[in-house]
Amino acid sequence: MNTQELKQEFAKIFKNQTAPRVFASPGRVNLIGEHTDYNGGHVFPCALSFNTYVVIAPRADKKVRLYSANFEKLGIIETDLTHIHYDKSQNWANYPLGVLSVLLKREYPIKNGFDMLFWGDIPQGAGLSSSASIELVTATALNTVFDLRIPMFELTKIGQEAENKFVGMNCGIMDQFASGMGKQNHAILLDCNTLYYQYAPLKLNGVSILLCNTNKPHNLIESKYNERRAQSEQALADLQKKLKINALGELTEEEFDKNAALVIDPVCRKRAKHAVYENQRTLRAVKALQANDLEAFGKLMNASHVSLRDDYEVTGKELDSMAEAAWKQPGVIGARMTGGGFGGCVVALVKNDAIENFKKNVAALYTAATGYTPDFYIAQAGDGAREIKE
After folding, report:
1. Domain of 320: which CATH number?
2. Which residues are catalytic, by number?
3. Is the domain of 197 the same as that of 211?
4. Nearest-CA neighbor of 300 among 21, 31, 62?
5. pTM, rounded to two decimals
6. Host domain of residue 137
7. H-type helices in 146-224, by residue range?
8. What is the pLDDT of residues 93-109, one digit of tens each?
9. Which end of the chain is more exposed for a tag (fewer CB within 10 A), N or C?
10. What is the pLDDT of residues 228-240, one digit of tens each?
């Protein structure tokens, strides 16, 4: 839907006479650096040109009414400023309500209710972080409409807090950061330990970022995500008995190998190995990109997938089948699972003249292996959360 259609839909659903405003916030894809964010390592995401859009208008009373054009059957979800709480039956609306809850707890002056219509073109269940996109578009809209004057950097942390404490998903900062701070034609190297970040131009010269959706939906909260985090934290606690570190991301591969025996549980040891090695891979990958060495970048992507499969064990049959099919194709620079795992997407760097054959061949191999029919999207690196003005 375009801006005009969104406003018309808003008027039809809410009958609110106040002039509405429109905001957008993107999904993200992480090019390399997976499950490193909550381990104090580096990530390398870019915001996408897929977005969640919000149309918002304030109300005179305390009512909060939310509606998603992607979930029409759920209708309007209504509450008010004095009754913001998590309820599973609120479904998708828990993400914007979580953001509102954090803002109210921090005593930002949101005195009136509001009507909000959401619509997104981020493929659902693809692991492209539609939840962070919903959080950041909500935060940006409320920040602007109620003149809260919160810097975007801070809004990303508010989005993460909403997901951690309200929704109960123990995620790191990466998704919200990429959604809020994204920049067109750039990826972001983010140190999740310090939140120091730098933009890196995506000079892909005849190569595209292709997202390969397994169409196996995943729900991270009900998956093994929080378990992996706990295992990593246990490994860190074991290492801290000897090493003065605050996060696994502070270790080099050599330091980890020398001290790995401190981690008592062999499963936790594998999880820690992935976190340490993946962090170093990410730093090397960004250097390779800056040196225009896409071949080296692609090899590091492949190694990332193998580590996520063997040491972190978050891939599963569908993601493995997709990655293995991709690796066999002419014109492929590299391919790996992206996102939390257990479904979602593989991200591949593919030469432009090979894309059509890649899609045809990978689809055939993948469907034969899994029974699912995949979807493919060419990804463009887009801007972060913003107001859309006519």
Report:
1. 3.30.70.890
2. 175
3. no
4. 31
5. 0.90
6. 3-201
7. 152-161, 174-181
8. 999 999 999 999 999 99
9. C
10. 999 999 999 999 9
